[in-house]
Amino acid sequence: MTTTYDLIVIGGGAVGENVADRAVQGGLSTVIVEAELVGGECSYWACMPSKALLRGGGVLDVAQRTPGVREMLSGSIDVPQVLKRRNSVTSNWKDDGQLKWLDSAHIDLVRGHAVFTGPKALRVTAADGTVTELTANHAIAVSTGSLPLIPDTPGLAEAEPWASREATSAQEVPSSLAIIGGGVVAAEMATAYTSLGASVTLIARGKLLANQEPFAGEKVADALTKAGADVRLGTSVERVETADSGEGHTLLLSDGTAITAEKILVATGRVPRSGDLGLEAIGLPTGGWLKTDDSLRVLDADGAPIDWLYAAGDITGRALLTHQGKYQARIAGDAIAARALGRPVDTSPWGVHSATADHAAVPQVTFTSPEVASVGLTAAEAEKRGIRTRVVDYEIGWVAGATIHSEGYEGTARAVVDEDRHVLVGVTFVGTDVGELLHAATIAVTAEVPLERLWHAVPSYPTLSEVWLRLLETYGRPTA
């Protein structure tokens, strides 16, 4: 039997849910196809469990630097309680609550793995072998996300390394953990597992958090070292040897040293989850990112949009962040409904059906201790784009709100100013709880608020937000 919907969404994570929800609100009949848990990677194996693992250490760090509170502390984390809380955050890897939401949102669900059989057509195979044929009146949207990249380092596969899923869902903390990689997952898991009592070694070929402003990775590396982690930058793993018993691994590094660890976590990047979708049936290469226009229509080999095929989230390679994927999803769902029903479609820059922010105003928080919060361009990225810039730095620890926050508060704020337009094109904060400063920066960058107007956005005293005033003062107040 073949069932027809206006829209079929492949992937029931946060991104796919948002595509479906917007399309239903726009008047389209919609079904989600999901082979695993509805709610996806973010809910069960990424954003939510990782932050639950990090929260205890972050709170303890602040408490230990707060007189009157630190005297009450035992100085250690109750690891079983942290893991129990993490399990609760993931609903113990059950999606009952998500199914109730789908029902309330009038979105149908088909369980199974989807493969394209032709334009607007899918075959879905359930775990028990049951096959469902689906066709779309108007569109299919792909929101299948990404997978961890596992390098072909000799001996690594035999060591059965963790990837991000295993790290965020582990029910026990290993005595020692070697983390390969220098990006967000590596930095966050190094922070979490160090706070949970593991002996952590982080090994990165280059710098830590290399895509951020240089001082961000430097401050996080320093904090990890002070917390007891062994941070090895500028080196790589050449070979892994596993003990005959299968317990314990030796990692031989390019600098001639070696380390041993009970577990290995590989956090060296992501690849698109598109290799098993049958894309060849619709004339697209198998296994690559699905490139899109700004209304999230997939582009064919000639760069032309396919009018019935959309993609959103990690699978596009645009910005591998849940919140940015949900932003794309809202735009895609609205665009699908508008085109299907003959409504106006606005794909102009910053238009209602254009994911313009992907190019200029992507916010991100790395939940290390200290946190790293950034939006827009780094100074180096702005220079590469030919923007005439001025960089303004200010130490967050100098503002009154930081003094009250905790003893010895250390942090840095950086604003990257477009000198020709007198607007911010990038902002970075490093420090405890700076993630709460980021949305103000995101609004300033997205709206291209002139610096002259920002002088009238008065930060409340005494809060960390006072750093905004100090950045403006450092830059210099405009004269009439």
Tell me, briefly, the overall form. globular
Count helical runs: 15
Assembly state here? single chain
Compute the number of structural domains.
Answer: 3
Q: From the alpha carbons, calculate the radius of gyration and give it in angstroms.
A: 24 Å
What is the number of E strands? 22
Protein name: NAD(P)/FAD-dependent oxidoreductase
Domain Pyridine nucleotide-disulphide oxidoreductase dimerisation: 362-468
Domain FAD/NAD(P)-binding: 5-324
Disulfide bonds: 42-47
Explain how this protein is built.
- It contains 15 helices and 22 strands.
- It is an alpha/beta fold and 480 residues long.
- It has three domains: 2-44 and 90-147 and 271-357, FAD/NAD(P)-binding domain (3-Layer(bba) Sandwich), CATH 3.50.50; 157-268, FAD/NAD(P)-binding domain (3-Layer(bba) Sandwich), CATH 3.50.50.60; 370-475, FAD/NAD-linked reductase, C-terminal dimerisation domain (Enolase-like, domain 1, 2-Layer Sandwich).
- The strands form five sheets. Strands 1, 2, 3, 4, 5, 6, 16 and 17 form an eight-stranded mixed sheet that branches.
- A hairpin with a 5-residue loop joins strand 5 and strand 6.
- Helix 7 (184-195) runs parallel beside helix 8 (214-227).
- It is globular.
- Its cofactor is FAD.
- Belongs to the class-I pyridine nucleotide-disulfide oxidoreductase family.
